[in-house]
């Protein structure tokens, strides 16, 4: 998928940022993501993984807010990663009305539950906090179109693996994208569950 096929607000933002064409790894996966394929996207730092997440998400949602329940869930390792990704989204959402929300452990959980309930399109969350909010009936996952894990190596620390694996049990049909610098053999346990034998695409 070339940048020419993106929605107008994204094309204008990319032009303003000076991006004229996708990076090599992005060329490999943009069209596959657009087509709804679940995958492991494995590439080194600097390959454009984070930008791919942002562009693909905005494109999937057509830049439009819709109802109250989130349509994209992105797992990150900690508060700083959540805030960094939120900032990246905000730099690309000019001209859209998409709502992005961060959920992490350091913030009051009741406030987070209420703020998510008020309506959001994209939730960026640490796994433990997301599951706590879910079990408080504070987030509706039934409308998810995409579930993404950014820099997925973190899931093998601090019981995050169990938290991430538990979430798909509460989701219906959804596209799953796992981004990482290296493919860890422990990812393979997902191939027979929510990743459904998804391909491993490497830079």
From TrEMBL:
- Domain Helicase ATP-binding: where? 30-201
For this UniProt record, the keywords arranged alphabetically read as follows:
ATP-binding, Helicase, Hydrolase, Nucleotide-binding
The question of whether Lyase is a record keyword is answered with no
Gene Ontology annotations for the cellular component aspect, listed alphabetically: cytosol
Quote the InterPro entries the UniProt record gives.
Answer: DEAD/DEAH_box_helicase_dom (IPR011545), DEAD_box_RNA_helicase (IPR050079), Helicase_ATP-bd (IPR014001), P-loop_NTPase (IPR027417)
Any idea what this protein is called?
DEAD/DEAH box helicase
Q: Which PROSITE patterns match?
A: HELICASE_ATP_BIND_1
UniProt-listed PANTHER family: ATP-DEPENDENT RNA HELICASE DBPA, ATP-DEPENDENT RNA HELICASE RHLE-RELATED
**Any keyword ATP-binding?**
yes
The stretch of residues making up the signal peptide is none
What Pfam families does the database record attribute to this sequence?
DEAD (PF00270)
The molecular function GO annotations come to: ATP binding; hydrolase activity; nucleic acid binding; RNA helicase activity
- Please list every transmembrane segment annotated in the UniProt record, as residue ranges: none
Species source reads Leeuwenhoekiella palythoae
SUPFAM superfamilies on file: P-loop containing nucleoside triphosphate hydrolases
